[in-house]
């Protein structure tokens, strides 16, 4: 493949050498060796394409050279060379081969011998450096080229193997391959929150001229700023991820790697690359020049880079990167628990954050009581920083703990559902005076299908060995209300929240023999073919109610 390229490019190379030789004449005997060396270097180098971005792969400590010349008749024509390092800093320079002016002079008028000498004078090839640079920034050289000169670009990487992109153009009138940056290319941080940072930047002139072909892309990471999109993509790949170069730019339908997550919303494309070294996020937001970066971690330093991208060529230009540290997450509010006092906590299911309660023991033995009101709740209890209990609770749950006086207990509660949950909490050293009533084995209400009539329903529920008060309530509902009524039922709410017309009766009962601690009740005066929701409330000595599981029963339509 290399040989075929050599023979294919040989006529072009010979033509370029011929142009050079025509302008600088033949070499003298004294300069033949250097001229041969120049030809050797030239033939073992590559031609740099005009008007096209070229990717150049560099091996460590091995220089690589590219040549270019102008067409005949384009003396003093402008040209630009843009080099973009895609990884480590590199060294690069521009050298010019031209005939030495000291060998080309005008003879005095009438001095024929001198004129002959001048005509026959052989001009050697002189190599002069006109530009050199070392670093990893995108650098552009602008100069004036002469058709009598051959230009050489030399690139060298001293750190490791790498690659760069090079763009040469001699046509400065037909627009730019790279989008233009504004006079002030800085990114301004205009807002910082616990999980968000808001950025703004000045519009690229290219966006104002070619809005349909230009867009902004933002890169977010926790390591450092990148001076080019090429460098950023190289860093992402080196961390073990495969990132299609145009994925976040042209919105091409690439398949994502397992380490990538793509989020498309409100015409914004987000690519989140997950690696052991951290998270790199690419967000393309069209032509908006203000953006609030969401879903950041509190108290974390982030680096932000904005690239303006030409969608037709995938060429990009980098704004000056910036960084910001998100605000520290406020310490969760801790509520003090007092002996015997009951508090009800409502937990936000969307945020999934812990609600904290603290208690300083005044006795060696204490008891925590939790009554689940709605949803599902996770309870985590620590004593002096060490975990003593952690579980999901349901119904009524007791934790009896032993320790020392003045031990510090921290209770953390969290909803395990997306919907809100609520729970009642009480701590007490008085085991012999429980605040909540003694509960039966089951809080289910049973209905007897055979005993249903068109206007009555018979239900039953379990009692305890302790004499307690039970109150029955009913509510007429429609078929489409059943699920909502059962899901939204607050098991901690007492009958005080019910309408008086819904009350059916209240009764006391108990039985020493738990096998016989069952009671039944027939509710009359109902409408035929109608759904009813039945609730039973149990009241203990303290008066705190416990609500049985609601029961839905439908009366017979025909009797």
TrEMBL record:
<comment type="function">
    <text>Secretory protein that plays a role in various cellular processes. Acts as a chemorepellent acting on gonadotropin-releasing hormone (GnRH) expressing neurons regulating their migration to the hypothalamus. Also promotes neuron migration, growth and survival as well as neurite outgrowth and is involved in the development of the olfactory system. May also act through the regulation of growth factors activity and downstream signaling. Also regulates extracellular matrix assembly and cell adhesiveness.</text>
</comment>
<protein>
    <recommendedName>
        <fullName>Protein NDNF</fullName>
    </recommendedName>
</protein>
<dbReference type="GO" id="GO:0005576">
    <property type="term" value="C:extracellular region"/>
</dbReference>
<dbReference type="InterPro" id="IPR045805">
    <property type="entry name" value="NDNF_C"/>
</dbReference>
<dbReference type="InterPro" id="IPR003961">
    <property type="entry name" value="FN3_dom"/>
</dbReference>
<dbReference type="GO" id="GO:0008201">
    <property type="term" value="F:heparin binding"/>
</dbReference>
<keyword id="KW-0677">Repeat</keyword>
<dbReference type="InterPro" id="IPR013783">
    <property type="entry name" value="Ig-like_fold"/>
</dbReference>
<feature type="domain" description="Fibronectin type-III">
    <location>
        <begin position="437"/>
        <end position="545"/>
    </location>
</feature>
<dbReference type="InterPro" id="IPR036116">
    <property type="entry name" value="FN3_sf"/>
</dbReference>
<feature type="signal peptide">
    <location>
        <begin position="1"/>
        <end position="26"/>
    </location>
</feature>
<keyword id="KW-0524">Neurogenesis</keyword>
<dbReference type="InterPro" id="IPR055271">
    <property type="entry name" value="NDNF_Fn(III)_1"/>
</dbReference>
<keyword id="KW-0964">Secreted</keyword>
<dbReference type="Pfam" id="PF10179">
    <property type="entry name" value="NDNF"/>
</dbReference>
<keyword id="KW-0732">Signal</keyword>
<dbReference type="Pfam" id="PF19433">
    <property type="entry name" value="NDNF_C"/>
</dbReference>
<dbReference type="GO" id="GO:0007399">
    <property type="term" value="P:nervous system development"/>
</dbReference>
<feature type="domain" description="Fibronectin type-III">
    <location>
        <begin position="179"/>
        <end position="316"/>
    </location>
</feature>
<dbReference type="InterPro" id="IPR056225">
    <property type="entry name" value="NDNF_N"/>
</dbReference>
<dbReference type="Pfam" id="PF24354">
    <property type="entry name" value="NDNF_N"/>
</dbReference>
<dbReference type="InterPro" id="IPR019326">
    <property type="entry name" value="NDNF"/>
</dbReference>
<keyword id="KW-0325">Glycoprotein</keyword>
């Amino acid at each position: 493949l290399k040989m075929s390229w050599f023979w294919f490019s040989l006529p072009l190379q010979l033509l370029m050498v011929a142009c050079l030789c025509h302008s600088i004449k033949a070499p003298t005997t004294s300069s033949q060796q250097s001229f041969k060396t120049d030809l050797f270097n030239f033939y073992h180098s590559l031609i740099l394409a005009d008007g096209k971005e070229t990717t150049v792969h560099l091996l460590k400590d091995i220089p690589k050279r590219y040549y270019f010349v102008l067409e005949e008749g384009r003396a003093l024509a402008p040209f630009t060379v843009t080099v973009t390092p895609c990884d480590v800093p590199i060294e690069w320079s521009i050298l010019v081969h031209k005939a030495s002016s000291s060998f080309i002079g005008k003879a005095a008028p009438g001095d024929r011998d001198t004129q002959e000498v001048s005509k026959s004078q052989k001009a050697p090839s002189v190599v002069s450096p006109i530009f050199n640079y070392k670093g990893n920034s995108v650098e552009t050289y602008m100069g004036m080229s002469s058709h009598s000169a051959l230009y050489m670009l030399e690139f060298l990487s001293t750190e490791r193997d790498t690659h760069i992109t090079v763009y040469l153009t001699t046509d400065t009138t037909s627009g730019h391959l790279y989008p233009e940056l504004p006079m002030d290319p800085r990114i301004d941080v205009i807002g910082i929150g616990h999980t968000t940072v808001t950025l703004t930047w000045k519009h690229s002139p290219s966006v104002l001229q070619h809005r349909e072909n230009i867009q902004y892309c933002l890169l977010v990471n926790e390591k450092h700023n990148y001076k080019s999109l090429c460098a950023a993509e190289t860093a992402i790949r080196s961390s073990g991820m495969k990132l299609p170069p145009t994925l976040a730019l042209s919105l091409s339908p690439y398949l994502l790697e397992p380490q990538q997550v793509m989020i498309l919303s409100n015409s914004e494309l987000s690519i989140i690359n997950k690696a052991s070294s951290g998270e790199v996020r690419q967000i393309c937001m069209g032509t908006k020049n203000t953006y609030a970066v969401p879903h950041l971690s509190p108290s974390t330093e982030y680096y932000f880079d904005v690239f303006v991208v030409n969608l037709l060529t995938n060429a990009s230009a980098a704004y000056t990167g910036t960084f910001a540290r998100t605000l520290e997450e406020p310490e969760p509010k801790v509520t003090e628990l007092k002996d015997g006092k009951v508090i009800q906590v409502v937990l936000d299911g969307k945020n999934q954050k812990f609600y904290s309660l603290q208690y300083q023991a005044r006795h060696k033995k204490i008891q925590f009581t939790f009554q689940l009101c709605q949803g599902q709740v996770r309870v985590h209890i620590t004593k002096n920083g060490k975990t003593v209990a952690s579980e999901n609770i349901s119904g009524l749950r007791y934790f009896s703990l032993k320790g020392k006086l003045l031990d510090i207990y921290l209770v953390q509660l969290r909803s395990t559902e997306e919907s809100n949950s609520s729970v009642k909490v009480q701590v007490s050293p008085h085991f012999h005076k429980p605040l909540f009533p003694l509960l039966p084995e089951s809080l289910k209400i049973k209905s007897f299908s055979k005993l249903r009539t068109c206007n009555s329903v018979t239900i039953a529920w379990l009692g305890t060995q302790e004499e307690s008060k039970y109150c029955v309530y009913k509510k007429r509902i429609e078929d489409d209300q059943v699920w909502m009524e059962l899901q939204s039922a607050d098991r901690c709410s007492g009958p005080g929240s019910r309408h008086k017309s819904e009350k059916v009766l209240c009764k006391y009962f108990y039985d020493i023999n738990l096998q016989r601690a069952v009671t039944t009740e027939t509710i009359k005066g109902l409408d035929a073919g109608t759904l009813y929701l039945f609730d039973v409330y149990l009241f203990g000595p303290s008066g705190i109610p416990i609500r049985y599981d609601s029961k839905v029963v439908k009366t017979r339509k025909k009797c």
